[in-house]
Write a structure and sequence with these properties.
Blueprint: H1 3-17, H2 28-47, H3 52-77, H4 82-112
Length: about 120
């Protein structure tokens, strides 16, 4: 794998790590950029011959980012359900971060010949 694809995934992981504070729910615009970058990374990895499950893992990360966006919009639009929206946001953004980290491990494991 090229270092560009892995560098892009690591950058996404670092960006998702910034969403671990309760105030992060107000930065919904940044999630849109992350959601736009995930398919590009998946296409680049697929073109380089990454395993089939890498695309599926990044698709799960994409869906988790979209769920986090919906929770953030619910937080803004419905004040009475803000505690629930914060919980949904934290869960979804954490899942997306985990899927990206899992994908990095899978790709690096294949590059080094390790079995994961």
């Amino acid at each position: 794998m090229t270092s560009g694809a892995l560098a892009g995934l690591r950058q996404l992981h670092d960006d998702l790590a910034l969403f671990d504070h309760p105030d992060s729910i107000r930065r919904v615009d940044e999630l849109g950029r992350i959601a736009a970058t995930l398919p590009r990374c998946a296409a680049e990895l697929e073109a380089e011959g990454a395993p089939d499950d890498v695309r599926e893992r990044l698709a799960m990360a994409f869906h988790a980012v979209r769920r986090a966006e919906r929770a953030a919009l619910g937080y803004r639009d419905r004040p009475l359900t803000r505690p629930l929206s914060q919980t949904k946001f934290a869960l979804a953004s954490g899942q997306a971060r985990g899927w990206v980290l899992n994908t990095i491990g899978r790709v690096e494991g294949d590059a080094t010949g390790e079995e994961r």
